[in-house]
From TrEMBL:
The lineage of its organism: Bacteria, Pseudomonadati, Pseudomonadota, Alphaproteobacteria, Rhodospirillales. It comes from Thalassospira permensis NBRC 106175. Keywords: Cell membrane, Membrane, Transmembrane, Transmembrane helix. Its main location: membrane. It is a multi-pass membrane protein. This is Lysine transporter LysE. The chain crosses the membrane at residues 15-38, 50-73, 79-96, 125-152, 158-182, 194-215. It is found in: Cell membrane. InterPro entries: LeuE-type. It comes from the Bacteria. Pfam families: LysE.
Amino acid sequence: MIDFADIAPYLPGIFLAYAVLLMGLISPGPALLGLMGVSLERGRRAGHCFAIGIGAGSLCIGILTLTGLSALLASWADAMTVIRIAGGIYLLWMAFKAFRSAFRPVQPASDAIARDDKAISPVGYFGLGLGLHLTNPKAILTWIAIISIGFADGTPIWVGWVIVIGCGTISTLVHFAYATAFSTAPATSLYRRAARWINGLLGVFFAAVGIRLLAGR
């Protein structure tokens, strides 16, 4: 039987990792802008397939990050310190970008994906979303930060899997919801109007978590 006392010490790190992922999903990036473009131009079904592809890509990166980190920790005792510092620096960079974006217009969704008249199957849109996310440096670096937050020295491997599976599920569901919303022009317009406030809040959040990582807390 699972003892809650054994799980409780790891819950703050798990939930903070989830929070970092959610903030990353709100932050405008290649995946979000690409999803906006597909949903607006090709409709809800195409957007949903594209979103599932993004979620699958996120899960793949998470698994690779976790398994690679576990192997690195087994061979190098100071690996977690290096990963933690790298994650903290990246989050501070994200904070800088968020604050900078708060003072300039959001890139139009139409610039995120090329317009064409070729028919693409649902599997094709899934592949586009998957490929976009697997080659997205932001997604890779975000996963390094996520794992470094919830998976410290001496942490059981199951904690890492809870983070990876949970984050992969959250990513898929959130992008699926985005595809539903972005297939309607009013929702996209509302998001763009609120972009300055969203980026400002993201900057504060990323800066706080980045400093926390660098401080070793």
